[in-house]
Structure prediction request, 295 residues.
Amino acid sequence: KLTSLALQPVITPELVQGHVHLKCTYSHPSSKPPLLYIVVWSRLSTSGKREQVQQDSTLQSFSYVVMNGVNLRLGDTVFCTVTAFTRDTQEQQSLPEESKGFYAGIKFLPESLQIAEDGKEHVLTVLSTVPIACPGQDDSCKITLRLSTEDLDSQLLRPPNIALSACQVDLLWAPCSGSSCAAAALTVTAVTDFALDGNRISRIRAEPVGWRDLLWRAYTPQDVKVTVQDLPTGNCYSFTDPHIITFDGWRYDNYKIGTFLLCQSTSRAFEVHVRQWDCGGHRSAAACNCGVAVR
Prediction:
């Protein structure tokens, strides 16, 4: 006889005796006779296959499974399915109820970015959904992630398309709250390359370093896909004696000798100075660029 008991199983991470565990908790309805719970743990591996990893029979309203890097690994999405039986006869059972999938590992928020070559900084948050264990007294409770970028159009030798504010981040131990047990933030900026090279796709890769524990040593988080939108660039010129063409195409001449401010940004610390000197005009005064300074 199948009945619905609204068990509502939920998976939460927990550190038990220095090891990462997942805990499945569910409602404990007051019923007579008492109930026996069958909890089936399963994982959705990175290849997309569903595999059972553990089955428990318990009178408690919770069940634990350990993440040992073998049966359960970082990068897995984990489920628990709970069925309740009457202890005395086991003839009556509830409908099996499954938890939402719990992703165990490193997450990036947002999972992908679409940015433009406009100089703006975009915040990328790195978080661990499982607690950070301390392997020994001499080790601080943290995971160090080395960050790198890669242009996916590797056939062309191009300069980097994105810049990160840090080449590594530390995920420090903290009490688990919501879906985060440790978090760090960095910024991503599109490199303004002054080239009309179309929209380009890059990825950000994170790699745990210096970790001896099997759980973290064999784990590589998923990459972050970054799409960089190409924006039209502008050009300005100062040439010959000298003729000047501004960014918006306005043209004029400046024959004077001295040091001048050629270009200055109103939004950031960027400016160009030019030094003009007499370059020997016979019929009229002529000046030529003889030096430039850029900040």
Observations:
- The longest strand covers residues 35-44.
- The chain has a mean pLDDT of 87.
- DSSP finds one helix and 25 strands in the chain.
- The two ends are 79 Å apart (CA to CA).
